[in-house]
Design brief:
The structure is a single chain. This protein has 385 residues and is of the alpha/beta class. The chain has 2 domains: 11-179, Rossmann fold, CATH 3.40.50.1970; 184-382, Dehydroquinate synthase-like, alpha domain (Up-down Bundle), CATH 1.20.1090. 48% of the residues lie in helices and 11% in strands. It contains 15 helices and 8 strands. It has helices spanning 18-26, 41-44, 47-54, 72-84, 96-108, 118-121, 184-200, 210-232, 237-250, 264-276, 280-294, 300-311, 318-334, 348-360, 374-382, and strands at residues 11-14, 32-37, 59-63, 89-94, 132-136, 148-153, 158-163, 171-174. The strands form 2 sheets. Strands 1-8-5-4-2-3 form a 6-stranded parallel sheet, with helices on both faces. Strands 6-7 form a two-stranded antiparallel ribbon. The protein starts with 10 loop residues before the first strand and ends with a helix. The structure holds 5,6-dihydroxy-NADP and zinc ion. 5,6-dihydroxy-NADP (NZQ) binds at residues 38-41, 45, 68-69, 94-98, 100, 137-138, 140-143, 146, 148-150, 178, 181-182, 186, 189, 193, 251, 266, 280.
């Protein structure tokens, strides 16, 4: 196992009625709270009313309209509001986009050394943020329990990420009942995003880390069992709860301890979303089978372990590897997600644009061995046409 440091300070309140029971206590110390949310789903499903009720003794300022793949220009309006109104706490109510947006707002409010976009474009480190908490309404990204954020700039078709030890939420409330109003497509997106977060911290090469491997395998198996079950019976509380927790555990920093990581599927996927507007998880479902096919030699040992432990596929030759990759892609399709570039009208010319973007950004050596060059990215994408 490799050396590692692990620190995760996020307090989690998980379960039914947690918004009503825990939120007011968690924000006791703050007086001026900026409530941030997305396009309005929380007003249709009752979550907004519960939150407002819990905050009734506080001075609240609202900032709605944070879009999916949160946009820098929108977020800068919230930054201006937070600065002008001396906000002392932000509450994010929503999915990964709202939570990531709030991480950026919290950092940018105190960023006085230049354009806050530099936090993303130049990965400038910052030391001060506004404290914030979250009420999660869509399990997918793990943002509720990690310190990462992904922000888009639609005017330039960019989508960049940052990570900072000051960007953990103070607390997150995870009530599985908030999932009842999600459209099926967001449930599928959330399952696939979580699945691939685990894969990218697991499917590399062995370093004799059985604890992390078994954590990863248990989350993958849970997603495989519970995902299709949830799509058949959307209001089953336990299935919602299992998926919500699996998704948080998939990207809260625990799985990556002491093991190599390969985030190439995400890096390629972010460029596809930035250029063509395809949902984050759908880009991953397209790219991952290509990464596994093209990199199967270097990933062979872990691919076979994954096949055996997660899919009960017993074998150690090329045919077994093909079967393992096929069954993975088939699982995404069973969740109702299309997995080929042509399904989204992306052609060979578009692949040039994606590769050029990655090259311009200097992402020339992706993967656990830093050997996924632009040429290999092209090969991966061409295998997905
Ligand atoms: O805008 P609202 O009205 O809230 O509607 C949202 C949005 O349209 C809707 N929704 C959320 N909760 C709902 C609901 N609709 C009905 N009932 C509910 N309970 O779902 C739509 C999608 O929401 P969004 O937040 O965009 O989805 P997701 O959670 O998948 O987040 C995606 C973003 O997170 C980034 C992605 O790149 C993307 O920008 N990621 C963040 C990561 C992180 N911070 O660690 C890691 C991930 O890999 C990912 O890159
Ligand atoms: Zn993701």
């Amino acid at each position: 196992m490799n050396n590692f440091s692990f620190h995760n300070p996020v307090k989690i309140h998980f379960g039914k009625s947690q918004i009503t029971e825990k939120l007011s206590h968690e924000v006791e110390a703050y007086s001026k709270i900026m409530l941030c949310y997305g396009g309005g789903s929380i007003k249709n499903n009752g979550i907004y009313n519960k939150v407002i009720d819990a905050l009734k003794t506080k001075d609240i300022l609202e900032f709605g309209g944070i879009e999916a793949n949160p946009d820098y220009e929108t977020l800068m309006k919230a930054v201006e509001l937070a600065r002008n109104e001396s906000v002392d706490f932000i509450l994010a109510v929503g999915g990964g986009s709202v939570i990531d947006g709030v991480k950026f707002i919290a950092a940018a409010t105190y960023y006085n050394d230049g354009d806050p976009w530099e936090i993303l474009s130049k990965r400038v480190k910052f030391t001060k943020t506004l404290p914030f908490g979250t009420v999660l309404t869509l399990p997918a990204t793990g943002s509720e329990m990690n310190s990462n954020a992904v922000i888009s700039r639609k005017s330039t078709n960019e989508k960049l990420d940052f990570s900072n030890p000051n960007s953990f939420p103070v607390f997150s409330i995870l009530d599985p009942e908030t999932m009842y109003s999600l459209p099926d497509t967001q449930i599928s997106n959330g399952i696939i995003d979580s699945f691939i977060h685990v894969i990218e911290q697991y499917l590399t090469y062995p370093v004799n880390a059985p604890i992390q491997d078994r954590f990863a395998e248990s989350i993958l198996r849970t997603l495989i069992e519970e995902g299709p079950k949830l799509l058949k019976n959307r209001n089953d509380y336990d299935t919602n709860a299992n998926l919500m927790w699996a998704s948080t555990m998939a990207l809260n920093g625990l799985l990556r301890c002491g093991v190599p990581e390969d985030w190439s599927t995400h890096m390629i996927g972010h460029e596809i979303t930035a250029l063509f507007g395809i949902d984050h998880a759908k880009t991953l479902a397209i790219v991952l089978p290509g990464v596994l096919t093209v990199l199967q030699d270097v990933k062979k040992q872990k691919l076979l372990q994954y096949g055996l432990k997660v899919w009960n596929i017993n074998g150690n030759d090329e045919n077994s590897i093909e079967e393992i990759i096929d069954v993975t892609e088939g699982y995404f399709q069973r969740l109702g997600v299309r997995t080929r570039l042509k399904d989204y009208k992306i052609n060979v010319h578009d692949i040039n644009k994606i590769c050029k973007r990655l090259e311009d950004r200097g992402y020339v050596e992706l993967g656990e061995n830093k050997n996924i060059s632009p040429d290999l990215v092209r090969k991966i994408l061409e295998s997905r046409l």
